Give the backbone structure.
Amino acid sequence: MNETTAPKLLVRAPVTVRWGDMDAYTHVNNSVYATYVEEARLQWFRSLDAGWMGEDAAPILAALNTNFRKPIEWPAEIVVEMFAGRVGRSSFTASFRIINRHAPDVLYAEGDSVLVWIDPRSGKSIELPPHVRAALG
Amino acid sequence: MNETTAPKLLVRAPVTVRWGDMDAYTHVNNSVYATYVEEARLQWFRSLDAGWMGEDAAPILAALNTNFRKPIEWPAEIVVEMFAGRVGRSSFTASFRIINRHAPDVLYAEGDSVLVWIDPRSGKSIELPPHVRAALG
Amino acid sequence: MNETTAPKLLVRAPVTVRWGDMDAYTHVNNSVYATYVEEARLQWFRSLDAGWMGEDAAPILAALNTNFRKPIEWPAEIVVEMFAGRVGRSSFTASFRIINRHAPDVLYAEGDSVLVWIDPRSGKSIELPPHVRAALG
Amino acid sequence: MNETTAPKLLVRAPVTVRWGDMDAYTHVNNSVYATYVEEARLQWFRSLDAGWMGEDAAPILAALNTNFRKPIEWPAEIVVEMFAGRVGRSSFTASFRIINRHAPDVLYAEGDSVLVWIDPRSGKSIELPPHVRAALG
């Protein structure tokens, strides 16, 4: 049987583009997309019921891969959707899409990020906390 | 007779604070307040019916004075209010307040800005365009 | 006798303008000037021999007033000069100038900032630490 | 025969980390790495003898993939190295490394970017201009 399941949506973060997000090309600067994705990631972290950062467990961003599909111009209202991907021992992949809030077919960017849980004292990776693993579904 | 009139409200711009607006002190960085004020200014520019930037007339920010009253921490929803101040030949002063969107008594910052209209080709100041002067009331 | 003394130079911080500092007007965005001034301020803080931030004493920026004199365009090398101003019980004023590193007569911006020392636990202002007061001359 | 050639170094861009590049974790924020890479890219664009942006040919960033290897803390002096990768009809891949300026073995991040040349009027991809292709070696 060839069963496919849609990736689990972790968070939908609405973001309002600011004029200052644009650069000298009058498009939203590429580095600001990382800030949009960060906003979704942090909102998801914050939604985890047992906390997401402590003395002995904290996430770090290990990789961020972004494909820019369409320029964004101010004013614009967008949504960042973050989905659970492959889950490993101490890390997981989360994919994302940046779309227009009022026209969800308009895809501005898509990509994925790798998040690793570490012990902040040693900097070493640790097993994903159970409540994080549970939230990934 | 000693009549005082409240300054004219030019724009109320809601802004949603982003996690990345914070700096290493875990408060919104002081430079980001300027971005919040800019967002209100640009929304007001955009509302001017005869356009706000052209080949022969454009505004520049000549001064920005900010008093920081209370730190802002993510997550937060704020509003930037911009008011008309003294109007001169080629420039005007606009004051601003940054408040909490859900608790308007919470004042995060206040200050004023000076905007000058120039001829972009010469860089020289020009008379305020009539529609700008009219919008200032 | 009417003796005037030049304000004491606290720090000269060279800064290299980044392309991304520019906004849709292809000039350095006004909010980035605050980042340049911050860089000078933090370099000065860091030079204080007894440290500048601790459990019971830390500086906060209470005000920042900037006059924009001349647009900055990438690429550019600038210097931020910070000078001691009026010193009070718990606060002091520091003025600043942003100039061209290779043509010091080219003044991009000037202004002043107010720094207050607080007890981070209570948020209340405290007396300026003696080593800070000494550094102000 | 198994001949390998080192990728061609396109540009080495020194960057000085600013205090404001750090976020609430007191490390340089992930989005700022994109700004560092952008600075190298723009310095390389600027070095192209026949110009890099015109009415009928301009580059856009189509993808940016970053692996974060080691946190950066202010103060720090870094270098962004950009290398030519695979060259196609209208695009090429450029890899990059962000290292410590004074300890080149310290690798902060590495990754690659995809640059596409377009006709800004139509938004359609065009053949890489000959002087760009030549510069890629």
